[in-house]
Design goal:
The chain is of the alpha/beta class. The chain has six helices and six strands; from the N terminus they run βαβαβαβαββαα. Helix 1 crosses helix 6.
């Protein structure tokens, strides 16, 4: 199964989590693909059979700049992803008013596109952890099992 890992990061923590996701999913036998700042056409060319979004939250709960173009392209061009399994890992900081707002935005968009939620969204809180890449591992192992279904 081909899994596209779409990421958005400001300081690099989401990219670190995405790299761990690639390693773990490949280790579980999936073809995992991740490219920071990927364009909509590149995602379509990969022809994913599952979607994983890893994103931080910036400003007042917005998506990072390097994920915004892809978000708008997905929203406006509506790829035929209905029925595909998908999941979201959201990085945020609970000391801010909008906790994991970027992840919530991506989750809502995936649901609008008809993507089936393989696991509930994982929220990683920067005020509680300094190792989101390690903290994501148990959830990623669960995701691999869910995708094998």
């Amino acid at each position: 199964m081909k899994v596209a890992i779409l990421s958005g990061s400001v300081y690099g923590a989401a990219e670190d989590v995405a790299r761990v996701a690639v390693q773990m999913l490949e280790g579980a036998g999936f073809e995992a693909w991740h490219k920071p700042g990927v364009a909509f056409e590149e995602v379509l060319a990969f022809a994913p059979e599952a979607i994983l979004v890893v994103t931080s939250t910036t400003g007042m709960g917005e998506l990072p700049g390097n994920l915004q173009n892809l978000y708008y392209a997905l929203r406006d061009r509506f790829p035929a992803w209905s029925g595909l399994p998908g999941a979201v890992i959201a990085l945020g900081d609970s000391s801010y008013d909008v906790f994991c707002g970027g992840g919530e935005q991506m989750r809502e968009l995936l649901l609008e596109l008809g993507v089936r939620e393989a696991l509930p969204m994982l929220r990683l809180d920067a005020s509680e952890t300094v190792t989101p890449d390690s903290d994501a591992k148990p959830w990623l192992a669960e995701l691999a099992q869910a995708l094998k279904g």
